[in-house]
C-alpha cells in the first residue's frame, strides 16, 4: 500500500466513514447506515465541520478511504490551563487492520494535537475492546481515569 494521506473529511466521505464505524461488533449495534438516518449523519457532520475545534479526519491510501478518527481540541482551566486533544471514533477498514496503519494514524493525530497547542492527548475506549486497550497502552497511553456515560 502507498503512504497514507490525512485530510479533513467532506460530506461525500460520510458513507465510507459510517461503514467503518459500523464494521465491528459494537459499531454494528450502534450505527445505522440506512438512508432513513442519513440526515442525522449529515446534520452531525455539518456541526462538526463548522466547528474550528473539530477535525474529522479520513485516511486515504491509493485513493481509498482506509481509516477515520475525530480530533477535538479542548481549552480548559485545569492543569494550569492545559489544552487537550481528544481522539475519538477511531476506525480502520477491516481489510487494513493489523498492518501498522493505526500507529501511523495516532502519530499523525498526536502531531496535530501538538500543532494546535495541546499538551495532553486523551481518548475513551469501550471496556469491551481489550485489543484496543493493549494497542493504546503500547502507544504510551495510560488508563488513568474511569469514564461514565448517561444516556439522555
TrEMBL record:
Alphabetical list of Pfam families matching this protein: Acetyltransf_1
InterPro entries to which the protein is assigned, alphabetical: Acyl_CoA_acyltransferase (IPR016181), Bact_Acetyltransf (IPR050832), GNAT_dom (IPR000182)
Keywords: Acyltransferase, Transferase
Domain of life: Bacteria
Domain N-acetyltransferase: start-end pairs: 4-152
Keyword Transferase attributed: yes
Name recorded for this polypeptide: GNAT superfamily N-acetyltransferase
Taxonomic source organism: Rhodovulum iodosum
Amino acid at each position: 500500500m502507498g503512504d497514507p494521506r490525512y485530510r479533513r473529511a467532506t460530506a461525500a466521505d460520510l458513507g465510507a466513514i459510517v461503514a467503518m464505524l459500523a464494521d465491528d461488533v459494537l459499531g454494528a449495534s450502534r450505527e445505522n447506515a440506512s438512508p432513513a438516518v442519513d440526515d442525522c449523519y449529515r446534520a452531525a457532520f455539518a456541526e462538526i465541520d463548522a466547528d474550528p475545534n473539530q477535525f474529522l479526519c479520513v485516511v486515504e491510501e491509493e485513493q481509498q478511504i482506509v481509516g477515520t478518527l475525530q480530533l477535538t481540541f479542548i481549552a480548559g482551566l485545569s492543569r494550569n490551563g492545559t489544552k487537550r486533544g481528544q481522539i475519538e471514533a477511531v476506525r480502520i477498514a477491516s481489510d487494513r487492520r493489523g498492518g501498522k496503519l493505526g500507529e501511523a494514524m495516532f502519530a499523525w493525530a498526536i502531531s496535530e494535537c501538538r500543532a494546535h497547542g495541546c499538551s495532553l492527548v486523551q481518548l475513551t475506549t469501550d471496556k469491551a475492546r481489550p485489543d484496543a486497550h493493549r494497542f493504546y497502552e503500547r502507544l504510551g497511553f495510560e488508563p488513568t481515569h474511569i469514564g461514565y456515560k448517561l444516556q439522555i
